[in-house]
Request: fold
Amino acid sequence: MKRWLLALLALALLPGCVTSKVDEMVYNAPEQGIGDSTVVILGRRQASDYETEPDFIQCLGDYISDRDPSIQVLNELNFVNALYPWFEPRTAPLYPQDIDRLLQQHVVAQRMRELKTRYMIWIDGSTVRSDSGGSMTCAIGPGGGGCFGFGTWSDDATYEATIWDFTGKAEVGRVNTTATGQSYMPAVVVPIPIIAPVKGTACDGLGEQLLQFLSSKY
Amino acid sequence: MGVLLSLSTISRHSSGLPLAAVLLLAALLAGCGPKTVNVQGQFPKPLMDPLPLKIGIWYPEDFRTHEFYDEAKSRSESDWVVETGPAQVKMWDTVLAGMFRELVHMPARPGPKQMSPVVNAVLIPHVDELQYAIPKQTNVKVYEIWMRYRFELVTTGGDPIAEWKMPAYGKTPTAFLQSDQEAVNLAAVMALRDAGANFITSFPQLPAVRDFLESRNQTVGARYADDRQFVGARYAGDRAQSALLQGRADRSESVGARYAGDRAQSALLQGAGGGKS
Reply:
């Protein structure tokens, strides 16, 4: 019985397979790191049919600051609140040239100086589920319950990071990542999810490239 | 004491079964009730130079208690109640307080025979329409809220200055372990933030509002010129009076200067009366 339980647990902990690809295009990385300046990572939210997930933005920020604590990554919501309403989906700058227009308001320029934001990284993309199949039946009765069947689905993640140098008012880098993974859920009495960490892999891939861009240690 | 204890024990035993049945029934029926969202969120103060207006705000009753009710179309769906009124008031209070030099809550809707606080104009917001969409309905992994506002800008006498409509939109993606109610609340908060952002950027651009602001600037400019003239004349009068006291000028200069000061003051008072709204 114990062996069976251990085998089930081991099976449940198995991750699904993920294929990931990262394309990088950097024009002008800081050679000495970013010093005491700060970085903010923001999600693009203008599209009508998808939205860059806030947890993905949080994951990227954590990835960078965990590996190089000298890089101060500002919290997305705190930054957007501090500059309300100039970074809402309706009003956020779409091109680096729009920064000039934004800084014409001296209160905005003053707040940006206080925040010491040098790099602004825009993330656009999402993780979508596709190609789901299989079937599963669950039942419950006086003697107990259980499930029987097999389910599978595929997740596709596509994200693009655009790096703006806020002081130079120019785009200085662009990183793309795609990740695809197949997840499975066989069920013999107990469903055993074998989940492919697609979003996590995309976060790691993109985070690594951004870390190399921003950090003097990498 | 012993009697009391046994009585309470008996009463608990006798009511235990029906109570359990009632709780079970309530739990079963809970799934049949409408999904209610009482919108709650935090709204930041806008970062901007305030417009030089003392603005009044009047929230009509239907705005303060605004709620949206959507009846289920089929048995598999639920009724929805989205209460936005208190959140609307909270958001607009925050946005308008940061957007204008001063915000005054009006005790009643401005009218011809209404005693109102002295403000430059009164804003009256209305929610004309609200729609929502959840992933079950659209097959898109986002929750959406769409609102259409109607604003009236009137004088303290109730005369219209401007009236316009404004859309607001908010959406939020699906998330693990997030209920429909939580997601709709988040989408509503995003829609309210969008409404604030849209209002801040569009208000000074509206032709009727621009005309109103320009006419006010001219009135203020004229008043400012009158003030300068008045202060200058006063200053000349004071200088002349001082000279008279020192015996270096005759009294007529002082009277003339004083007269110039009085004329300027009279013009100022007339100007103030004409520019009052």
Notes: Strands of chain B lie at 35-38, 51-57, 67-70, 80-83, 100-105, 121-133, 142-154, 160-173. The interface with chain A takes residues 42, 44-49, 140-142, 171-173, 175, 193-194, 196-198, 200-201 of chain B (CB under 8 Å). Helices of chain B lie at 2-30, 61-64, 85-99, 135-138, 180-202, 207-245, 251-275. Confidence is low (pLDDT under 50) at residues 1-17, 230-237, 239-277 of chain B.
